[in-house]
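Researcher: Structure for this, please.
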Amino acid sequence: METGSPDDTGTAGAARAADRAGPAAVPREEPVWTGLPPGLLHMRRLLLVVWLGLLTLAGGVLPALFLAPAWSALALLPLALLAWGWVMLGRNWRSWRYAERADDLLIDRGVLWREETVVPYGRMQLVEVTSGPVERHFGLASVQLHTAAAATDATIPGLDPAEAERLRDRLTELGEARSAGL
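Model: Predicted structure, token format:
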């Protein structure tokens, strides 16, 4: 026999209603996802054009000079690869995103094989901001997170350097606050 009225609005009644409804009734806050800036896509596409452009020239000019001119059709293969790579780079770039939540950082990526990495702030041991010469030329930086388990290391590539430094400082601050209780 239940006690209380059917319209019981107290905390015990609300808890019983949530228990009956199951986990779907518990409101979950959806994370706010942040995508990567377009500079990363521009950099990767430029590198694709440079390398495959050189291969196309070599495949078209050298066989035409040293063999028969019909062999210059070999240049069509790198051009097809360039077109395919252009589309794939765009799909890959759109698949990357990250979200900062109260207790952890989510990194989601992948087109064919989706991968979502959850890195709890308390488990972070080191947060690095790196930028190679090509990335610096395009005004980009990467944030790399290191944890105690090597398998959970995560990277967010192609961020604006100011955003990368802000993220590093925030993650370091949250990591220190969460690990202080351990």
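Researcher: Any notable elements?
Model: Residues 1-20 have pLDDT under 50 and may be disordered. The two ends are 45 Å apart (CA to CA).
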